[in-house]
Amino acid sequence: MSGLQVFAFAVLVLVVTVSLGAALWAPAPYEKQFREAPNAPPSARFPLGTDELGRDRLSRLLFGSRLSLLLAPAAALLSTGIAVCLGLAAAHFGGWIERAVLEASDLFSSVPWLFLLLAVRAMLPLNVPPITSVGITFALLGLLGWASGVRVVRAAVVNAAGSDFVLQARACGCAPRRILFVHLAAAILPVLTAQYWLAVPQFLLAEANLGILGLGVTEPLPSWGNMLADLQNVPAILEAPWRLAPALLLLLVLGCFQLVLSKKEVQP
Amino acid sequence: MARPENRNRPLRAALSVFTRTVLTLLAAGLAATLLVGYAPGFGVDEKVLDPRFSASSARLTRQSVRERGAVAVFVEYLQHAAQGDLGTSETFSAPVAGLIRERARVTIRNLALGMAAGWLLTVLLCAASAWARAVPARLLGSAATAVLLCVPAGLIAFGAVAMHLPAGIGIASVVFPRVFRYVDGMLRSAESKTHILAARARGLGETRILFNYALRDHAPQLFALAGMTANIALGAAVPMEVLCDEPGVGQLAWRAALGRDLDLVVAITLVLATATLLANRLAGLAAARFTERYA
Amino acid sequence: MKLTGSCLALVVLFSSFAADESQLQPAANSQLRAVLRSDPKTLDPLLVEEESGDLIRYLTHGFLLRVNRRTQQPEPDAAASWKISPDGKRLLFRLRPGLRFSDGAPVTPADVVATFRRMMDPATKSPLAGAFDSGQGNLIVRAEGSTAVVLELPAPVAGVERLFDQVPVMPAGQLTGSVGLGAFVVASRQAGSQITLARNPYYWKRDPSGAPLPYLASIRFDIHSNRDVESLRLRRGEIHLVSSVDSETFDQLKSNQQVRTIDIGPSYDSEMLWFNQVSKAPGPEYKKQWFRSRAFRKAISHAINRADIARLVYRGLAEPASGPYPAANKLWFNSKVQPDAYSPESAARLLASDGFSRKDGSLVDRAGNRVEFSVVTNSGNKSRARIASLIQQDLAALGIRVSIVPLDFPSLIERITRTSAYEACLLGLVNVDPDPNGQMNVWLSSGANHQWNPRQASPETPWEAELDRLMRAQSSAASYKRRKAAFDRVQEIVSEQAPFIYLVSKHALAAASPRLAGLEPSPLTPALLWNADRLRLLPEQARP
Q1: Does C493 touch chain B (CB under 8 A)?
Q2: Distance of alpha carbon A259 from its chain centroid, rounded?
């Protein structure tokens, strides 16, 4: 690990720790309205100022980060897991299984799943806690997000299957299952790791995009997505540049992710 | 006797691909019908909240998927589609075929710009770093990738609006980092392979090493990536066109989804599924020419 | 006093714009550029339903009478004069002599007759027909001589003159086209992207100096649904006006030298909260009991800080609302009805009188059920989300737990109109018709828009029966005084019973280029373009 990577890792650990302990560090509850101080600039009392309702932006940022940093990796794990299982099955068994997996991947890429998100949200009981609703949204994103990964996994397995070490293993009489789960799995591990760590920012970004489009985490629960939606009003950013804090934190976190993992990704 | 069989094999393969494509398209259309038809709010009209329109004057002409079943509604849709009638949009009160035709131009322009710019930039930076072994080119590409991968498409769209740029540039900003990351990663991994080291030791030119060895070795992944790029660009077209307010198919799809516009959603799904499948099939065909299949 | 102040402000506003008009000359062949928020679904003026189509109809068609958006009174347009019989059933319109359609053809009474017949034909399904359909017989339209038209109504319709403001006069041979009597004609249209209107060379109006109107050579509407894109384009000078801006953008535009901001005053739109009182609605019976309790609803109303909503959500550009109409509706607003004062103490007293009490910091009813309910609202509306958050905190002070559920619009409509599967709803009402007749569907207990308990077979409460009686009385009364008295009482009952808890009336806010002269902003639609025939675009150097 280079010095830069150590620094990035330290930053990530710091952000994750601070976010997870949001309840301990946050100057105020995220929904608490200081109505006498709406749109306040940064000060000792409100380090990142307040929003239109007088809510402390720093507290909202901390609680919003916690939500995203917990749920996005979970959704990425779910989608990568599905992609790995299906990609391995497609590459190993070939034939109709491979065709079915690839067709399913095409199908998943072309069907408007937006409805499923809308439908699930609309069908949830009205008194369900907002955090449950958010969890279900992320779970859905994870369940639906495997399609792009499955082709990469399959291609990597196909590529590795033609390697000398697989030929040698086969020549030595290795069982197909052992070749698949020991040799091929080890060979494609860097690809899988890369796929997972690429998926994490994708889910962080997916939440942000849903928030920007008005379909993400809803008020008063904070998230990076609904805080970034504020940036649509470009002139307001010029007046109050501290509004950029969620975007900068997102950039910092994802940048650190990439720096820390850049070594792993390029490994053959 | 063997010769006719060999002659039939490509035909059978083509037929199989065709059948699978058609079945996938039908499944996509049916899934869209199901999702729209059973989505909460299907068949309701915003006009019911307007006191000016009494119940008698509100025109509720939507077909009820829930009453007739999604399969029956979809089959009927296909029958009409076979006669060239893709239905009428409830949201826009206009024929679906006309709406898609009008907006396809904008989206095709955006996609072409986005994909071309994304790939071109990748190729230029990779070639620069390979030919000149130029560290700055690789660093520039990596830095741009790192930054762009951290920015949500929605924010890129805000930037495009603020800077008066077309949605296509926004799509390029989404496509480029994903393409560059894979291609750059592949090339880096290729550098340490023995046959590449050997080729370099034999004094082969960097261009030859890049195209004849490094890229060729990873042709299947590259073609899979090409197929994926089309999907990424199509996916990015929706938020870009919505937030940049460009009247393309992406914006149409968004409004159709929010309006539970059955005919329009099914038609757009079929169009997008066809585009996705075509991109993937072409990528698959090209990949097949470069690699032997895993037995 | 407040009303007088508003009137004075409007007079000052109008006179300042009038001064611009008299001092400066328009740019030659000027094209006004603006934005439509949606593509009109149809240009057939008898089938128009949405705001964008309504605007195109307004600009390209003439009407027998038009409502002057400044005085809010009907005045002659295609009809030079009109007369209503004492029983209110017979209307005689004398057409303006020398009128020509935009294709040059003369206007005859036969055109008016053909237009009305097509409108009333059930096969046309015109949304305009319902207002003339009293259910007691058919409307008879006939020509009288070569210059007059007679309409015979089966029963009198109160405020009938206003209804003609939306019925275009069209040539008998082209009843579905865009040929009309308006100041402009549709010159080109690119679906989903642009509509251009050009000056109608046969437009009948002239300015006081005898010069032909309109002053503008054309109007180009770009179609954009994104409000931020719209205001950015105004800043860049790519468009000349925005008819409706939100308070945050309005504040930002104030400091921009290239833009003139216009606060038109309280609009006709209001934000409100209501509880589901449908007896067959799903959900526990005890909650329905709360929602049917007047004391509970009034307590909630007193617990909501309307001034904070106006200050924090609308940056002070809104007024606490007391009823269905704001003070801007000079004809129908009941000044005796005041918004419920913010008073947690009053709210607590009302709740205590109804058997509610505090237990472990939470409010509980007589049976010990914790008071908590959900408020559905439409997603994607920032202002409404903020109002919901404010209400949530206000009610938390009483020990009431509120969960906010934003739903996309179709899902929300399904819940509030079909399944009744909700507890409370926060929504806005856009009043396009300043006359109470436009709200019959809201206040009649049988109405589909009687949202708290729609489509009742018979009124379920005495006060709803009283509302029915009063609304019917006002709709059949011939004199304004009697109508006003009846509708004043309607507003009082609504305030007493709080079936809708009115929150705020936001101001109508607009912005325009300083080059645009002749503006007479109105809270009624089309706010800035109602006098488009008298708008002028000044040359760059002649800015006031």
Answers
A1: no
A2: 16
According to DSSP, residue C172 is labeled: T
Are C415 and C422 in contact by the 8 Å Cβ rule? The answer is yes
pLDDT confidence of residue C117: 92
Are B15 and B154 in a shared domain?
no
Shared domain check, B51 and B13: yes
Residues C358-406: tens digit of each pLDDT: 998 999 999 999 999 999 998 878 899 999 999 999 999 999 999 998 8
- Determine the straight-line distance between the first and last CA of chain A, rounded to whole angstroms: 17
DSSP-assigned beta bridge partners for residue C32? C219
Q: What is the pLDDT of residue B261?
A: 85
Provide the 3-class DSSP secondary structure of residue C385. Answer: helix
Put simply, the answer to whether C127 touches B57 (Cβ < 8 Å) is yes
Report residue B132's pLDDT band, with 50, 70 and 90 as the boundaries: low
Q: Quick one: B239 and B146 in the same domain?
A: yes
**Same domain for B32 and B161?**
no
Side chain identity at residue A12, one-letter code: L
Indicate which CATH number applies to the domain containing B153.
1.10.3720.10
Note the ipTM here: 0.80
Q: CB-CB: which of A211, A247, A267 is closest to B189?
A: A267
**Total domain count for chain B?**
2
Res C14 pLDDT > 50? no
Q: Token pair of C187, please?
A: 């010159």
The identity of residue C246, as a single letter, is D
**Neighbour count for residue C458 (Cβ, 10 Å):** 9
Q: Cβ contacts (< 8 Å) between C435 and chain B: which residues?
A: none
Residue type, C344: P
Question: How remote is the C-alpha of A213 from its chain's centroid?
Answer: 17
pLDDT tens-place string over residues C236-284 = 889 999 998 989 889 889 888 889 999 998 888 889 999 999 999 998 9
Residues of C contacting chain A (CB within 8 angstroms): 228, 232, 235, 248-249, 252, 308, 311-313, 372, 374, 376, 379-380, 382, 385-386, 388-390, 392-393, 403-408, 411, 421-423
Binary contact (C191, B94; C-beta < 8 A)? yes
pLDDT digits (tens, 9 = 90+) for A3-50: 888 898 899 899 999 998 988 989 999 999 999 999 999 999 999 999
For residue C369, list chain A residues with Cβ-Cβ distance below 8 A. none
Q: Is the pLDDT of residue C8 over 50?
A: no
Q: Among residues 24-43 of chain C, which lie with CB inside 8 Å of chain B?
A: 39, 41-42
Q: By C-alpha distance, which of A197, C190, A147, C118 is closest to B247?
A: C190
CA distance C122 to C129: 8
Mean pLDDT over each residue of chain A, to the nearest integer = 84
Residue from B140, B234, B141 nearest B183 by CA: B141
Is A29 in CB contact (< 8 Å) with chain C? no
Alpha carbon distance C465, C444 (integer Å) = 8
Both B217 and B278 in one domain: the answer is: yes
Query: Residue B60's closest chain C neighbor by CA?
Result: C125
Cα A140 to Cα C360: distance, rounded to the nearest angstrom: 37
- Among B85, B104, B136, residue at a domain's last position: B85
pTM (2 decimals)? Answer: 0.82
Which residues of chain A are modeled with pLDDT < 50? 264-268
First to last CA, chain C: 32
Based on the fold, state whether residues B188 and B250 are members of the same structural domain: yes
Provide the shortest C-alpha distance from residue C412 to chain A (in Å). Answer: 8
Average pLDDT value for residue range C481-508: 95
Q: pLDDT tens, A86-101?
A: 888 888 788 888 888 8
Of C144, C59, C58, the C-alpha closest to C95 is C144
Alpha helices in B38-95 (DSSP H): 65-68, 70-82
Last residue of a domain, one of B85, B115, B138: B85
User: Which residues in chain A have their CB less than 8 angstroms from residue B23's CB?
Assistant: 103
